[in-house]
């Protein structure tokens, strides 16, 4: 739990060194790079492309001097979803081509989320929100609520670590009750994992309701002051 708490703090309150290029790059360039990376990883169906994408993420993490716990620990729930996607694909298409496609889907999920982590860990919420508002500012002339869209997208980026937080909290509660005991039948352990995911989503909805109430209490949306605090 302490290790997870430290990783979560690295994500929610990233330290921004002034002497590293990765932290001084404009947030707009980071978002554009993330968009280009996501499109490339989604369209390219080769293990070479997946390897290049993984190498890029590792190189960026090394350049930013990020800790392994800040990158890997919040990734645990996504890795489990990727493993489930691989198992589902392999079950439906138990052929070499099917296994390769299922593995590529799993790796693609991990790479996309990890790339998002890199952007969040090397930028503050204010930087991301300002960058999104500036990139969407031309749409303001056609009546698009740019400030609201930028705020919602920033919240979406910052909401990613709460998925890992909620899942690990549920998993620790199940461990305390012996639900993941090694002596339990495999079917029972699989059911417990499904229950953990269900409880995770319920917890996320609870976080969403709490955030909505906090925004209402602060009169969110009145005027043009939509800065994230």
Give a description of the structure:
The chain has about 230 residues and is mostly helical. About 75% of the residues lie in helices and about 0% in strands. It contains 10 helices and no strands. Helix 6 packs antiparallel against helix 7. The two termini are about 25 Å apart. Mean pLDDT is about 75; it is low at about 1-15.
Key traits:
single chain; 229 residues; mainly alpha; 10 helices; 75% helix; 0% strand; globular
SSE topology sketch:
Elements: H1 2-12, H2 21-24, H3 27-43, H4 47-63, H5 68-72, H6 76-92, H7 96-121, H8 125-136, H9 146-176, H10 186-217
Helix pairs in contact: 1-9, 3-7, 4-7, 6-7, 8-9, 9-10
């Amino acid at each position: 739990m302490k290790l997870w708490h430290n990783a979560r703090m690295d994500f929610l309150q990233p330290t921004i060194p002034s002497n590293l290029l990765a932290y001084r790059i404009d947030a707009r360039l980071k978002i554009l790079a993330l968009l280009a990376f996501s499109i490339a990883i989604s369209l390219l169906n080769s293990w070479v492309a997946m390897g290049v994408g993984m190498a890029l993420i590792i190189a960026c993490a090394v350049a930013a001097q990020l800790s392994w716990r800040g990158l890997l620990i919040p990734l645990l729930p996504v890795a489990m979803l990727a493993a489930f996607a691989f198992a589902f694909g392999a079950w439906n298409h138990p052929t070499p081509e099917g296994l390769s496609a299922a593995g590529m889907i799993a790796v693609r999920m991990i790479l996309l989320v990890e790339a998002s982590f890199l952007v969040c860990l090397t930028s503050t919420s204010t930087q991301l929100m300002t960058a999104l508002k500036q990139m969407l500012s031309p749409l303001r002339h056609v009546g698009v609520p740019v400030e609201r869209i930028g705020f919602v997208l920033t919240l979406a980026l910052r909401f990613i670590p709460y998925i890992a937080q909620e899942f690990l909290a549920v998993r620790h509660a199940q461990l305390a009750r012996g639900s993941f005991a090694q002596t339990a039948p495999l079917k029972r352990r699989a059911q417990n994992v499904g229950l953990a995911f269900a409880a995770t989503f319920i917890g996320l909805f609870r976080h969403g309701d709490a955030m909505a109430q906090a925004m209402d209490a602060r009169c969110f949306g009145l005027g043009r002051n939509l800065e994230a605090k």
